Amino acid sequence: MSARSHSKRSWGQRLVILIPYLWLAAFFLVPFLIVFKISLSQFATAQPPYLPQFDLDEGLAGLKEFFSELSSANYARLVSDWLYLSSYGRSLAIAFVSTAMLLALGLPIAYAMARAPRRWQGVLFLLIVLPFWTSFLIRVYAWMTILQRDGLLNQALLAIGIVDAPPVWISTDAAIFIGIVYTYLPFMVLPIYATLERMDETLLEAAADLGCPRWKAFWLVTVPLALPGAIAGSILCFIPIVGEFVIPDLLGGSGTMMIGQTLWLEFFNNRDWPAASAVAVVLLALLIVPLILFQHVQARRLEQGG
Amino acid sequence: MNGQHQSDNPVTTRSGDPAASPLVRFDAVSKRFAGVTAVDGVSLDIYPGEFFALLGPSGCGKTTLLRTLAGFETPDSGRVLLNGEDLTRVPPHRRPVNMMFQSYALFPHLTVAGNVAFGLKQDGLPQEEIAARIAEMLALLRLEGLEARKPHQLSGGQRQRVALARALVKHPRVLLLDEPLAALDKKLRGETQFELMRLKERLGLTFVIVTHDQEEAMTVASRIGVMNHGRLVQVATPSEIYEQPNSRWVADFIGDVNLIDGRVAEKTTVVTTVATTPAGTIRAAASDAKPGDSVAVALRPEKIRIGREVPPASLNAVEGEVAAIGYLGDFSIYKVRLADGFVMEAAAANVARVIERPVSIGDRVWLSWATDAGVVLTQ
Amino acid sequence: MRRGLSFVNVTALALGLAFLYLPILILVIYSFNASRLVTIWGGWSTRWYVSLLGNQAILDAAWISLRIAFLAACVATVLGTLAALALVRAGRFRGRLLFSGLVYAPLVMPEVITGLALLLLFVAVDIERGFWTVTIAHTTLTMGFVTVIVQARLLGFDRSLEEAAMDLGAPPLRTFMTVTLPLIAPAIAAGWVLAFMLSLDDFVIANFTTGPGARTLPIHIYSEVRLGVKPEINAICTIIVAVVALGIVAASLLTKLSGAKPESSGAPL
Fold it and tell me: What is the ipTM of this complex?
């Protein structure tokens, strides 16, 4: 069918492509172009709060004037202001570290799931997925209660006697890491599990038969085979973590902000839409390589039919 | 050669009239996929009432050719005609042919009855007629009582029969079978082959089967088209294909064969003498090869006798040493190494249960065969 | 080698699941706390559930969220299914790479970027912000998830089933309706549920694209939570968790009862 449809596509087939394409173009592609345009504009106390505004009535002259007033001043500010640079750096650092933590935690869990008896695997799968279905906000909120100064974690620590005075959890980087690892864990476990689950059991038997001890077989056979899943899981976690807002906002401190918070602040508190747009454009540029990688992984996994 | 129709096989006698007009005609059909030619200018006529087999190794284009008849592939060039009518641009759902798929392609969300009824519903037949025809077809295929089952509740053999019933219930002009028995085990496959032949005779339909299994093609088909690299290399009855292969490739593909290279020394109307072969000078059946031509003599192992005594001079004969023996129960295969190292294969039926002095490895033996046993192949 | 769990495996699973479930469990338990202080246990009580029933703002927000989620999930399911069909079945077409990029990018795009971009679009074309803009935003956000689920199903789909239908006389559209659609229906349903849950859950994009009169439940919860931990929030969270858990268990029981093979419904990716 694909060979035939190549030369002659019916109207029905065209619509199948066109309808979602137009939707995504209108509500995902065009908005980014607008963000880019506004990032070159200037902040103004107006409604909407930026200049220049493009006025169709003024024709070509208006267009010329419009372009002449665009400037890269916002970007210059991003590079020169330490606040932004440190914010980007902090976001990337937190994303790297938490992705590594997620890998370290996710791999053994996924491996244990894949090794479990077949009839348990469905239940285990469900158990890992279930928290993902409960509200993201709720999961972050749950940790707010636990990590409070007089919260359950400190109550427990004091009761066991590990600490004498309650340590501070909330408003620290530790709280951010806990929140991120907690909410993103299923996204790391499931892709790894999906690759390991397909793994041929006899490969490990073959390794054992060839004289490879069990721990070594894990490193030489299982881990390389889990790699595609681990890469997919890492990208899947890394990209949204870089732009994370809710977790640092609710669990983190008031010191250095992650870039998502900076964007939020510029937009909602300072109402500086051009600055927020410039922050978004640079963030997108930073994420473009992992995004392309993600697109590549997805396409390879899901589009063999084409 | 293509499209020649032979009527000497008993199965085709009822309908195998060479004067009859063909039911299906492939007219110089070609199909390429991403630069690979799957079907390369195939012309072929299939006559009413035939059980025609397209036989060839995987990737030879036989399935693609079948799919141009079903309408799933449009030829890049050439035409497909049914009863003289050009089908080339007709979409599959408007073609009066039906197909039984290799995977059976039973609708998993429909029952057995629902699957068989599917095609009749598309024709908008009245409810009573659909019910009657389903009942008739299920009875014919011994599927009564399974109407309400879903495909996953059936055995492999039952699934295969449902797929057959679903295709047959529409009374197709031609029934297309794409490797229909590949998923069955050997014993069931044998039974089903005879079942297919019975059904074809009973319903008086024309069957076209695609298979890579030469035994299956030989068993069921009245005529076989052997395909290789997108081309039809020989179209003939099963016995002709086996006994009169027209090329080294066909001889080698169908059954076991000794191919002995040599040069034609002399020819008469009944005998072709081939010299300078590893087995000396061989007298073989008449052929159109000219003296001096490089040829191969194709010799089936079962046509070679093996023994310790010197054979009579009227036979071709060569001496050698037994290098290996394969015991197959009904037959034994002997690999015999000749003086210059060439290995020939001979097959002998194990007629006696106990043999006093069996031929064993290392024995010196004579291989002998009649003049008409060898076929001279020029290509 | 025996399939089974070593001590290390069991430990990894137990700790992992404890880590995932303990916080939620604590949240649920403390929603029944009689004390106003969420950290001190004051005995069992359902008073926060009762006070929730009287809290009109929360009920309104929940009602708006449900309506948005329902609409967005329906539209996203149609669009996402079409996109999956285009990606798996249409072969090569002009702009295919851009298309697949647009489909997959929302899955991982930081929500602050998507939210900002959509808001600026709505401002540029001067649409009044509120219920409909959030619905559009959530449709855009969730359709990619539907696509991924339906795509996986279509890839495992035996094309000869469609060929068989056509061979038996069904034209292309009828083949789609009678064979393809029923067979990919479980994936489409799973996609709808996922889209619904994601819309119900989203705070960041809703906060960007909303306007007066369209305060969704997550926006409400967030603004309450910012001011500190409150037992009413525990109560509403418990209700959401209970509804979700019941829904998932019911869905998995249904698929088991209907004898169908379990879908990878929960896995968005």
Answer: 0.86
